Amino acid sequence: MAYDLVQFDRNYQRAKRAGWHGRIETEADKRAVAEGCTFCAEAGQRVVDFMSKFCRHSKGRFPGEMFVPLEWQRERLIMPLYGWMSAKPLERGGVMRLRRRFRRASIWIPKKNGKSTIVSALGLYHLTMDGEAGAHVFSAASDRAQAGLVFDEAANMAEKDRYLSSHIQIIRSQKRLYYPTTSSYWRVLSSDAFRGEGLDASAVLFDELHAQKFRLLWDTLYYAGTARAQPLHISISTAGSNRESIGFEQYSMAKAILEGKSDDPTVFALIYGASETDDWTQPETWRAANPSLGAIFDEDDMAAECEQARKSPADESIFKRYRLNIWTTSDVKAINEVDWNACGPPAIAKPRLEDYAGRECYTGMDLATTTDIAALYYLFPEADGSFTGFPFFFVPQVGAEERERRDIAPYTRWIRDGHMVGIPGRVIQFPIIRQRLIDDANKYRFKRCGYDPWNASESAIELQGHGFEMVAVRQGYGSMSEPSKRFERAILEGKWRHDGNPVMDWMVGNLMWMQDRKDNRYPAKEVDTQKIDGCVAAIMALACFMVDEPTQVSVYEAGDLLVI
Hints:
With 564 residues, this protein is an alpha/beta fold. Helices cover 38% and strands 19% of the residues. It has three domains: 169 residues, Rossmann fold (3-Layer(aba) Sandwich), CATH 3.40.50; 46 residues, no CATH class; 225 residues, 2-Layer Sandwich (Nucleotidyltransferase, domain 5). Strands 13, 14, 15, 16, 17, 18, 19, 22 and 23 form a nine-stranded mixed beta sheet that branches. An eight-stranded mixed beta sheet has the order 7-8-9-6-10-11-5-12, with helices on both faces. Strands 1-2 form a two-stranded antiparallel ribbon. α8 links the parallel β10 and β11. The C terminus is likely disordered.
């Protein structure tokens, strides 16, 4: 951290005499003070007053009532964000005026804490009262529906206030507000419709940054205000799951500022949330992470959601992300690491494949692509209704080190230690995998083999010729939902024994559920580097077992092949 300590001490004493020294909290604040930045309470209060006098709630607990910011919104967000002033004043019409210190804001808070309401009100302030002629305000998100939420709230606020409604033109069909007094407008932008354009933004409101998958819109808006005197780029979001994303990049930057590891004086950072080591089931954790708890929503609501989260890893993941602002390992975490580990060594005696010779076996085969991981899974039903499974993984030997860097996974070590088979060459030779099944048919009583008809029909026909009963398991809700639920339930109940293969452990950690509103689900992953081939093969093998349970899975005859 490099700033002039003598100058800081001199300016700190001035701040103390002026009564705002308590606003100096981080290393970034100290650097700002050393460089001559000051704090103007009147500037922050101007924003608070605008909200309290012109903005009304349009939904929730207080429809129609004036939006009076809560204490945390006023003291931790609005006052510091708009009250800190740059050492370099702004000249307008020959008059020197104060200029805001912050050009960017990275705000991370759990859901239901009034995020959309306060961002909408801030957008209206920038549109009408920020002193910016020809202001261009943009609300942005990964898709148009999400980007429109902030706009819709702002439009509702404008309609409910007599002054704003008489001065702002609301064009809902175009998601646009126009303020003729200063020739200013508000537009909605989204990644799914954005194709790149020159933008001159005075204010950007980027909502739910954790969901942003592509950089084009973010990067364009990040530099869109360079021609403005005091642009402000605000991103506000809950935590996500993809730690390779723009969202996690910006979250990490905000965290570094708050922890004193960065002293960038131009970035405002605010994070409310629990840590990964906090007990997520305790009310004190909920209160620390949710500054609006008790004001906007009740603790009873949190308790009910927490109780539901205790029963399901998927619900636990959702609760931690959305209610406690904790970054999780997948969008909807399918299997808790503790539950998975309890089904394998050292929690149980390591099962040995050779002990299952002559036993009835169901298999799943995920061949994926010719240049990536392929997986087989042998599933043995037990007399007590449980299952024991053994995975097998195959990857091209050439390029393994490159994939190791790309996927952040130790492929070369796994190959060396026998947890994965390295196939010579740059592509997977499917005949080698088929031969593994053909050879093992002399050891185990293979009942059915599941495969994806989209990429493995040739192998299915070949294996059928060797006497295998092939079952086409399509990758979607119709075929995968019930076996996916059965897979999760068996693990939760401790009825899925596994041999502790580290490749499978890694893939289970990557597994998420893609779910619809009816709780149908199928296995998915957040990004391509998070492989789940072993999980898919295991669920396909379980689908083959469930063919004998017609109340669970519908099976139809299609020529000589069964199609689920």
